[in-house]
Amino acid sequence: MTSGKKRFLLTSLLALLPLTSPATPTSDPDDANALIASLHRPAPARTPFAEARFMRMLDKPLVVAGELAWLGGDRLERRVDRPAKETSTIADGEVTQEREGKKPRSFSLKRAPQLKVLLDSFVALLAGDPSRLAESFTVALGRDADRWQLTLTPRDPGIAKQIATIHVYGRGDRPRCLRMDEGDGDTSIDLLGELATAMPATPTREGLVAQCGGAM
Question: Which of 35, 106, 154, 196 could connect to 160 by a Cys-Cys bridge, CB 3.0–4.6 Å?
C-alpha cells in the first residue's frame, strides 16, 4: 500500500467530520465517546480541503487542494483540483484513481487488508460509533473550552509502522484540521472546510500545527 493511498483514505474520512492553544488531556472515556458520537454526519457529505505534505526527501512541502466526499457506507471520493486534476474513489471494495490524460487505475481492497481495516474504522468515526473505532485505535481526547484534539493511535502493529498517530483538531462538533504523522517521519496536514482557503503560500509544519491549535 503506497503512502498516497493511505493519505487519500485518512483525509477523506476524517475531513467529513481557529484553535489557539493545545487542549488539556483527559482520560475520561465517556467524554471522548460523547465527542465521537457528535461527529456523525449524514451522507452525502462534502467539504473543501487543502493539504500540505512534508517529506524528508523534499526541501518544500507538496500542496494540493480540492474537495472530499463521503457518499455513504464505504463509498469515498477525493477530488484534487490544484495543481493538477485527479480523482480517487473507494466503492464496492475497489479503489480507483483517475488522472487527467491517463487511463484509470483500480485495485481491490482485498490486496490491501490494512487499508480495509482503516476504512472500517474511519467509517465508524463518521457514523459516530466510538466502540467500533476503539477496535482498531486507542483514542485520547484533549479539551480547551469548546476546542478539542482527538489523537488516534493504531492498535495493529503493521499499521502502526506506517502511521504513528493521527490528530484531529476541532471546535464544537466540527473538525477543522487533520494531521497524520507517519512512521518514517513524514507528515501531512489538512486544513478543512472554511480553513482550506487559509493555506499559506509557503506553509511550514510548525506554522500549520499552530494554526490548527496543536503541539508538535
Answer: 154
Q: What residue has cell string 481492497?
A: 109
Task: Determine which helix (DSSP H) or strand (DSSP E) holds 151, and give its type and residue range.
Answer: strand 147-154
Burial of 177-199, coded b for 16+ CB within 10 Å and e otherwise, reads bbbbbbeeebbbbbbbbebbeeb
Cβ(120)–Cβ(136) under 8 Å? yes
Question: Which DSSP state fits 198?
Answer: G
CB count, 10 Å around CB of 120? 14
Q: Which CATH number does the domain housing residue 162 bear?
A: 2.50.20.10
Eight-class DSSP state of 185: S
pLDDT at 66 > cutoff 90: yes
Distant-in-sequence contacts of 165-172, Cβ < 8 A, 24+ apart: 166/10, 166/14, 166/137, 167/214, 168/14, 168/17, 169/19, 169/212, 169/213, 169/214, 170/17, 171/19, 171/146, 171/147, 172/146
Number of domains comprising the chain: 1
Residue 153's Cβ-count burial label (10 Å; 0-12, 13-18, 19+) is middle
Q: What phi-psi label fits residue 31: left (phi over 0), alpha (psi between -120 and 50 degrees) or beta?
A: alpha
Mean pLDDT of 3-12: 52
- % pLDDT > 70, the chain: 81
60: alpha, beta or left? (left if phi > 0; alpha if psi -120 to 50): beta
